[in-house]
Amino acid sequence: MKSVPKQEAQPKPRLIVRLGVFLASHHILFSVLCCSAGIITLLLLPSLAKNTYLSENALIPGFANPLFSTEDAIEANRFMKGIEAVLANFIAQQIEALGAEVCYHKFIPRSKNFHPLKFFTSMTNDMAIQPNGTDTNFGINTIGIVRAPRGDGKETIVLVSPYNSQSVQSNELLSLALGFSVFSLLSRAAWLSKDVVWLSVDSQFGEYVAVSAWLNLYHNLVFLSQSVILHTKMYGANHINDGNSEKTEVMAFKCAGTMVAALIFKVGETRRYGDRDSVMMYAEASNGQMPNLDLLNVVHYLAVHRQVPDYVEGTANLANSIYSQALGVPTGSHGAFCDYQVDVVSLEFSPTFHVRNDNAKSLFRLRGGMLIEGVVRSVNNLLEKFHQSFFLYFLTAPSKFISVGMYMIPFALLLAPLPIVAAAFAGGSKSMEKPVDKLIEHSKADDIADIPQSKGGSCKWLQAAKVLLVIQLWAVLVSLLPYYITQIPDATPMQSTLIWVVLSIVILIALSVLFGSPYSAGVEWKLLKATLITSMSIGLGLMSIINFATAQLGALIVIPMCLFSRPLKASGMNFLPRSVLLASNIVFAVLGFPPAAVLIMKGMSKGSCSWTTDFGDFWIWMEFLWEWSSETYLYLYLVHLPCWLLCILVLLHPCRQLESKIKEDWLFGLGGIFFSVGKF
Amino acid sequence: MAIRYWPMAAAAVGFRLVLVLFGGDLHLASRPEVSTPLTSLRRLAEGYWLKQASVSPYSGSMYHGSPLLLSVLGPLTNSRPDGHHAHIYCSLIFVAVDFLAAMLIRATGHKLQMARNRSLKSIDLTKAVNDTVNVSAGDVASLIYLWNPWAIVTCVGSCTSPIENLMVVIMIYGACSRLAPLAAFGYVMATHLSLYPVILIVPVILLLGYGPDAPPPKVFLIKGSSASKSDVSDNDKTTRQRAVQQFSWKPVLHFIFWLFILSCHVLLLSSVILKKVGGLHEMFEKTYGFILTVKDLSPNIGVLWYFFAEVFDFFRNFFLIVFNMNIIFMVLPLAIRLKHRPCFLAFVYTAIVAILKSYPSAGDSALYLGLLGLFVNELAEMQFTFFLFFGYIGVSLLSPVMHNLWIWRGTGNANFYFATGLAYTCLQTVLLVESVSSMIKHDRKLRLLVSS
């Protein structure tokens, strides 16, 4: 019997456990250190950017002299001069004259879709919508295909030049002419080993719609039994009586091989006051996806000779890039290509010449053509898909990038304290009982029944987890609501927002009636906070993989909000820190609510505060997000909103636990007194 | 708990039915987490089609399951009603199978509970232990099985894992209630369907021999010695001695007898089904051989596919032996340490198999998590439950995201997905280690309580 305490002496816990306990006991210091380090490294990121370099040796940009000459530029001029009223037809004729294949693609604009889970499903599942003969509202893309003399027809390079068929601007004509001249050069090139597709996009419904419709048909080819009915709009009124046989041949949709890369180019508005022509690169696709860095490197190598920007400019670029990635909405029609895993970049030329200056124009055309030819030539050299260089990066300048290994550091630092704090809070409620437990075990008191009294604590968190699950269920329901609300005809954004808010509150009340109110089960606020922090770190971790920029921006808001959260009624602190904590809690609680945040941002940026329209703006913004099937929408509703609600629950926690215990003791005491009085 | 059991169970079954009937476009069957080359119903349909065309169902390396399943489920895969997902009849069967498995788990739980109460009573600890945590383990376990998202996904996702799980559960139930023929049936079928349950023969024989889980024999000995010091009536002594049970050979021999008969039956049936289209030899090669030699390297949530994709060809055989022996190595030590708790031993074995098998899926985890619920009273003091719970949630969300990044977006690569698999394996290992060590702690606590 004497040997019992020896046997029972607890073995020393493992080193890793002890380390965890040590960290958990200093969790406040640790989290302050980590968070501040994270924010500092985030600010340092622009100066940590490295120079870009070409990883893929096969690209060898600028290796061959460009063949694009003044004659090609003159051909572009001829093309511009000869343009007719019906552009699609004219382009097709010109392409046919080059001896290349040509076809049309007729499409109708897609209606708004609600695809919040598009990310998780494959892109190729949705079938292309075929326009039927009765539709009058459609666009026509014209496609020219050069078959490579040296290729096997398995791979393609796509060139895209958009124009608006309803009202053609002069700069659009210029980009069409540029595209045509490059295409005509490529149709004669002997070195070509990949097919070239030139897509002139009818952008009357927006570029993205047209490009994605074409891509959809390209990847989900439907074989139609009968040829598409001709339409006056396509050929113009004077062509309607022509022989139909050759035209129907034109109508059949033609394909080339898999796309290796795509290049979208357009000529922007003329800049009057710049000193030189410039090219803008746009690459952000949906959900912050970027093309392979090598493609951008090639363009940069061939186009640019301007030097490194300073810290401020780099920060501005970085912030711009993070913002557009975080929104999850593509910055142009290149987004459609990225959905099919095609590496793509949009180039926007901004010439500085006057529109009437023919000399400058032809020089510009020459330069643009040489650039495009050079890029095509580099891509043409590729033997494999782009894979060497980075996919996950931020650009601070065209020649400066921050790779994933670098930009993960601030995020990881921000995220690091979360598990520790969660452990501290989850273990905190247990550690209060441990001394009692040990005491009993050591003393081996007679009434053994007392020992297990303190046990069963390891599964206490189940109540908190239940609260979390109910809130997640609520979040899922709330995130689906906008889909049904938009079905209501003639609702202003303001009305829709109101309906949405009212319905979400109703659902919340219904759920709390169904599953019991969160406080009724007597969940400790510490456990609630531990659950909150754990769920948040899971959510942020997931989002950082889907769309890093969203997670980074979200972490900056959510992590302080959650770390600071503490019940307003909780006692046990001095007045000053407590009031500071209280104030910061309330500030974060307001800022963390998405509509409020949007409202404040709008109010700050505009200065004027027209309350109702701003509130409606939130709805419009939300609609914008889900129309583009941005995962930022899901993040807002399934990670951010539940976290915010849980934070509010923690803030409003009644902290009854101790009080009720005291009350019970008091009652016992009272009973004891009565009992003793009764004895007397 | 008991009052709310039936509504919860009914809700779980209803939820499954709703998913089966209306969740047609979830495409769960194509998820690597759900269906493996062994359990995919799509492959089964292909095998059935081949068999109908008088070709061996195993030709073309498509089907690797049992011929019995082929003749039971095969005809159902042929009829495709419009507007529903392809294998709706099979899915309805799987819902019923899951429900049956949950009922059997519940019955097993009740059996275990009764045995536990009896043994606690015989060492006078009923009050001490039961005051703290005494929930109906069977109800908890079967609700865990019914509401486990992975079990639901497996059930809806057109794969045959629910049937394999049911067979294991039948075996454990039969052994717990000492029904040797039932236990033999479950054992033979489970082994026939997925080979790995073959190691469960150890817990089954222990269960049949010693009866369900009890505190370690040492506890009874201590109790007996302390009781003999004090004055206790003879009546008490005899009950205590009865509690320490001797190994009874009769049910074990009975079990072995039935084992032979049933395995002969299964082989006979298989050869009848495969008559003219291939023999038993091909069946063994394409089912057991396929499992043991890890021929299919398509990604799954395990770790073997990645390893065998990387390993040099001339080391392949060596590592195949190492990985397969890995499971065998753990059988004996665990059996020695946990021989007084054979049901828990069965849980440990299924968990080990789920970690180390060549084509693991979420269905295997659903099984051992359900069985874990049977020991909710003993494992109430388990550590790290909070982090294990959230770890499982995190990993199961991470896995589809990583898969998407690799396969669809092309920005990730195989390492991304494999990292999830590693994290998942670590989580399972921690769960296993923690549950075993807290079970041992529980036994130690019982001993301390008795000896004090």
UniProtKB/TrEMBL annotation, chain A:
GO terms for cellular component: GPI-anchor transamidase complex. The chain crosses the membrane at residues 20-45, 404-426, 464-485, 497-516, 536-559, 580-601, 632-652. GO terms for biological process: attachment of GPI anchor to protein. Coiled coil: none annotated. The keyword Nucleus does not apply. Pfam families: Gaa1. Keywords: Membrane, Transmembrane, Transmembrane helix. The keyword Membrane applies. This is Glycosylphosphatidylinositol anchor attachment 1 protein.
UniProtKB/TrEMBL annotation, chain B:
Pathway: Glycolipid biosynthesis; glycosylphosphatidylinositol-anchor biosynthesis. GO terms for biological process: attachment of GPI anchor to protein; GPI anchor biosynthetic process. The chain crosses the membrane at residues 86-107, 195-211, 255-275, 287-308, 314-336, 343-359, 387-408, 414-437. Its main location: endoplasmic reticulum. It is found in: Endoplasmic reticulum membrane. GO terms for cellular component: GPI-anchor transamidase complex. This is GPI transamidase subunit PIG-U. It comes from Miscanthus lutarioriparius.
